[in-house]
Amino acid sequence: MSGIHHWPICAYQGPVCPAQLSVTEALAIDAIEPDERAPRRPGRVKEWLRRYLPAEAAAILGAVSAAWLVDQAHVAAATAFAGAIGETLAFYAVIVVRDWRRPVWPMLRGLLIEFGGAESADTLLVRPLAMYLASALVGHTVLGVVLGKLAADVVFYGLAIAGYELNRKLTANRKLTVNRTVTANRRRNDDPLGATAIARRPR
């Protein structure tokens, strides 16, 4: 046995290794990793509906209300932008209220990942243009706002859902890294062949 060395192995594949583990410890961690992985999510469509449907209902009300108020000035472009802004405010009011129980920084980071790209394209270009063109085509401002909103929603939710799934994956990876680090430290302290246990033995 004197020719066998327990070389330290890093259980965390990152820029900094939080725990130097022996071969015994690394094998023990590998054995429990499948239990730490996030479970499959069979009802993704239902999950998306629960997240976005209440906010969407509020957004429709906000868009129509804002467009109706500004339409008194009889400026189609202003009406379209007002509808887009009213919709955005109402939508995110519902989202933020639902996510408010989370810590502020993780909540803001998650919203930025989920909606950053979608909102930039949507508010600055896609939605006002869709509402303006739809209003011009049907000849009725409020109806055009609703039709333009529905058309823009296809683009918006495609990007938002991609961001939502990305945020979930990043969050799960962060949790898995923390779990692995905690497990590695516990195994390192409990394993009689580990570096920490050897260091604590009386000389």
Main attributes of the structure:
203 residues, mainly alpha, two-stranded antiparallel ribbon, 6 helices, 77% helix, elongated
Reported for the largest beta sheet, the result is: 2 strands, antiparallel
Secondary structure: helix percent: over 70%
Give the SSE string.
EEHHHHHH
Number of helices: 6
Shape: elongated
Low-pLDDT stretches are 4-38
Q: Kindly report the spatial arrangement of strands forming the biggest sheet.
A: 1-2
Radius of gyration: 26 Å
Mean pLDDT: 76
| Beta strands, count | 2
* Portion in beta strands: under 5%
Describe how the helices and strands are arranged.
Blueprint: E1 9-10, E2 20-21, H1 23-36, H2 44-70, H3 76-99, H4 104-138, H5 141-190, H6 195-200
Antiparallel strand pairs: 1-2
Helix pairs in contact: 1-5, 2-3, 2-5, 3-4, 4-5
Q: What does this protein look like?
A:
- Helices cover 77% and strands 2% of the residues.
- The chain is mostly helical.
- The chain contains six helices and two strands.
- Mean pLDDT is 76; it is low at 4-38.
- The chain has a domain at 45-178.
- Helix 1 packs antiparallel against helix 5 (141-190) and helix 2 crosses helix 3 (76-99).
- The chain has a two-stranded antiparallel sheet.
- The two termini are 21 Å apart.
- The radius of gyration is 26 Å and the shape is elongated.
Q: Briefly, what is this?
A:
The protein is 77% helix and 2% strand. The protein has helices spanning 23-36, 44-70, 76-99, 104-138, 141-190, 195-200, and strands at residues 9-10, 20-21. Mean pLDDT is 76; it is low at 4-38.
